Amino acid sequence: MSDVFKGSFTQQEPIPEAAIAAAVEVMRSGRLHRYNTAEGEMAQTALLEQEFAAMVGSKYCLAVASGGYAMATALRAVGVKPGDKVLTNTFTLAPVPGAIAAVGAVPVFVGVTENLVIDLDDLRAKADQADVLLLSHMRGHLADMEALMAICDAAGVTVIEDCAHTMGAAWKGVPSGTQGKVGCYSCQTYKHVNSGEGGLFVTDDAEVAARAIILSGSYMLYARHAAGPPPEAFAKIRYETPNISGRMDNLRAAILRPQLQDLQTQCERWNARYYEIEKGLRDTPGLRVIERPEEETIVGSSIQFLLLDWGETKVAEVLARCAARGVELKWFGGAEPVGFTSRYDSWRYVDAPRMPASDRVLGGIIDMRVPLTFSLEDCALIARIIRAEVSAVYQAAA
């Protein structure tokens, strides 16, 4: 009888005991709101901002309610107005074009390559259409950031990085989120630190940081942001920037701080599982693994491979056969959005022209979560199941 995997693709590890203890302490204090502090006390949220800014090497950090809120705030803070066009990836998830739409702007989609990164040739061709690029490091894949920044700098395009899948990742040793004007991170359950929901925003630009802090709902309490810019940065901004409340609370910050301390170890654990699966998938007939550049420091919390030019029927058969053996795969080529998975023409609030080259790549992208609750033996078994079912469909078609 064929092996069946019996684990869960959505089960996360428990919150660390140190984080549970910190959360209980906050609850006992009753001071969950970030600005509700006792005399001489620094809020857990302010401490988290300091620690994350130091971790990635940014001057300023703001903790917010979600990664999507961080992106919409970044767009507002750099000056995007209703009706403006914003460049973004074709291969992405709904919160990215959603953040653009939330500020009344219009997404302009840029293509995806077979390495699952933004197509720099297409970016170069479209760079004159917008002043901002909301760059999604989708599923943890980093483009050549030096080349990308050179294109954007030459065209006067401001880069905002969506790092929902790249907290802990780097390009040539430079942390993801620190090459553009703003870096936005998610702390949602399926990301690299888990507070259920939450987001982090980093920048080296004092004006952008000040706008973001006021936007997040600081009122006139911005001096309590230990990782914020100096008071003079708020002198004019505080009068002209609306409050669009999206603060993080002290409870979530307390849960996150111990996880940040363990992030490097957790990244190493994810990568061990990623490479175990990749090893088992290599040289499978009809399947292409995604080669990761030497310049990229990855965090393998999910894995993707290509069934390029297979067509909908054969891809659906692979997914069904793997599901019958307990392996949950997602496909980015479906005409209808399913669960968290959708493609650029799913968002019908955007009038997006067809992109045949990207459609071909999206039609082949198979995606799978790699939770840390999986053992290396689990990962080897999962790879064997995928390999067997892909091979069976491929050989039958041949």
Overall description:
- The chain is built from 13 helices and 14 strands.
- It has helices at 17-29, 44-56, 67-77, 95-102, 120-126, 145-155, 206-216, 237-240, 250-261, 263-281, 312-324, 356-362, 376-397, and strands at 60-64, 85-89, 106-110, 132-136, 158-162, 170-171, 174-175, 182-186, 199-203, 288-289, 296-297, 302-306, 330-331, 365-369.
- The strands form 3 sheets. Strands 1-9-8-5-4-2-3 form a 7-stranded mixed beta sheet, with helices on both faces. A 4-stranded antiparallel beta sheet has the order 10-12-14-13.
- The model has no long low-confidence stretch (mean pLDDT 97).
What's the SSE pattern?
HHEHEHEHEHEEEEEHHHHEEEHEHEH
Query: Tally the helices: what do you get?
Result: 13
User: Which strand order do you get reading across the main beta sheet?
Assistant: 1-9-8-5-4-2-3
Structural class: alpha/beta
Helix content: 25-40%
The CATH architecture category of the largest domain equals 3-Layer(aba) Sandwich
CATH topology term of the largest domain: Aspartate Aminotransferase, domain 2
Q: In the CATH hierarchy, what is the superfamily of the largest domain?
A: Type I PLP-dependent aspartate aminotransferase-like (Major domain)
- Binned strand content: 5-15%
Number of domains: 2
Shape: globular
CATH class of the largest domain: Alpha Beta
Assembly context of the chains: single chain
Number of strands: 14
Our Rg estimate from Cα atoms comes to 21 Å
Distance between the termini: 25 Å
Name the average pLDDT.
97
Q: Tell me about the largest β-sheet.
A: 7 strands, mixed
Low-confidence stretches: none
